[in-house]
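Shipment paperwork, digital attachment
Item: protein structure file
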Amino acid sequence: MRILKLVCVLFTLSLAEGVLFSLSPNAQKCLKEDIQGNQLVMGEYEVTDVPGQIIDYIARDTKGHILSQKEHITKGKFSFMSEVYDTYEICFISKVPPHQRGIPQEVSLVTKKGVETKSYEGIGEAAKLKPLEVDLKRLEDLSDSIVRDFSLMRKREEEMRDTNEKTNSRVLFFSIFSMCCLLGLATWQVLYLRRYFKAKKLIE
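Attachment content:
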């Protein structure tokens, strides 16, 4: 039982991500991550309060679609659903009035995605599951999530390998074509010079 809980805790820690960084005045800092499709992403942020300075945040995908946005943040939460596998980014933007001298602000961000966003306590109460069954359910979902991640990594590796093979074949064909062009040009140049020298009677 203790070992099972320890394994669940380790998997949970591996999924939850927390960062703490300093945001310079009138600057923008973005955090990017590849996320699978149809996954719930939840986050909790907190920034140090500096009078007169404003921080906004925005979450979007590579196409520029805004998934979550809020202005004048200090402390709060956000969530959005990833539609397809893509690189998603969360940006924090600092705004300081022109007449004020800005100072850096600390930003704390903790994000969770997929399985980590589920409330297993609520699931256990609704289904009347025992604590051990809840832990098993959590471990099962975590295992499925890891398997999906490995499958995605394998798919991406295959795509990259296919791209490399196509690139290598194209480079090979281009090299062969270039060599043929050079050989043809060299042959034409030799024949042309031979005819030229014969016309000038420099060679027989």
